[in-house]
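In this supplementary section we document a worked example of the pipeline. Step one takes a protein sequence of length 298 as its only input; no multiple sequence alignment statistics are reported here. Step two produces a three-dimensional model, which step three serialises into C-alpha cells for compact storage. The input and output of this example are shown verbatim.
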Amino acid sequence: MDALSTRPVRSGLAVADDGIHLYWRAVGEGPAIVCNNGVGVSTFFWRYTVDQFSDRHTVLTWDYRGHGRSDPLPDPTTGEVGMSRHSRDMLAVMDAAGIDKALICGHSMGCQVGLEAWRAAEGRITAYVLILGTAGRALESFADNPRSPFFFNLAGQLIAALGERTHRLVRPILHSPVAWIFTRRAKLVDPMYASKADMAPYLEHLAVLDMRMFIRTVLQMQEHDAWDVLGTIKVPVLIVGAERDAFTPIRLSKDMARRIPGAELLVLADASHAAIIEQPETINHRIERFLRERSPAW
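The serialised model returned by step three reads:
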C-alpha cells in the first residue's frame, strides 16, 4: 500500500466574508503548512510538498476564488481579486480547516498573498517559505523588462474589450500542442527538468479560467506592495530563488533576503519559475533543513 494513501485527508469549502466558497484539502496531521498557489494555478504544483511533509505535518492546499474548485466570481469584470482579498481568504480557509497557526509556503503570487497576511495576522504565522516570488510590484521586474506593466495593461484592455470572445480565441490555443511549444521556447519552464506531463495540469487549468478575472489578478500583483512589511517579520524565513527565473529575477529574492531579519536564501542553479516541479527534491531537502534548524519544535 502507498504510504501516502494511509495519511488522513480532510477537505471542504470555507466561506469567505463575502459568501464566496473556497475549496481546501488537508493531508496529514501535525504542525500545519499552508500552501498558497501562483496566479492561474490550482493545487497540483504542491504534490511534491504534500508527499514529502504530510507524514508528520498537516499540509493544506487551497484554491483562490475563481480558480480550481472554488467559486467563480459572480462578475469576473468587477469582483475583488487583490492580494489583501486573497490573504483574507487564506485566513478563512485556515479557520475552516481548524488551523490556528501555520508555516506559510508561497509560490510566485502566493508569496505576496502570504506576506500581505502578516499585516493583519502575524500571530498566526510561525514561519515563511517564499518560493520564486516577490514582495510586490511584480510586473515592474517581469522578465527584467521595465515596460512589462505597460504590456500587461494593454493586454488587460484588449481582454476587457473582447469580453467572452477572449475565451473562444485563447482556449483552443491552450488545448493545442502550441501551448507546450511556447512554454518551452519562452523559457517559462526548463524541459530538461520538467516534462510536458508536469505542465499539462497548469495549461488545462488555465484554459478553463475566466481570462478577464485572470488578467485582473495579474494586474493586482503590480498594485500590491508589501516591501515595507519585510523589515517587521519576526519569524524564520526561507527564500527560494532561481537563476533562470524569467518571471521573478533572482535579484529580487536576494533583496528580500537582505531586508528580512535573519532570512535564509536558497539559489537554484539552472532552474526556472517552475522550479517547484523541476527541482522538488532540492527544495524539499532545503525546507527539511530549515525546519530542523529554525523550527525545532516541528
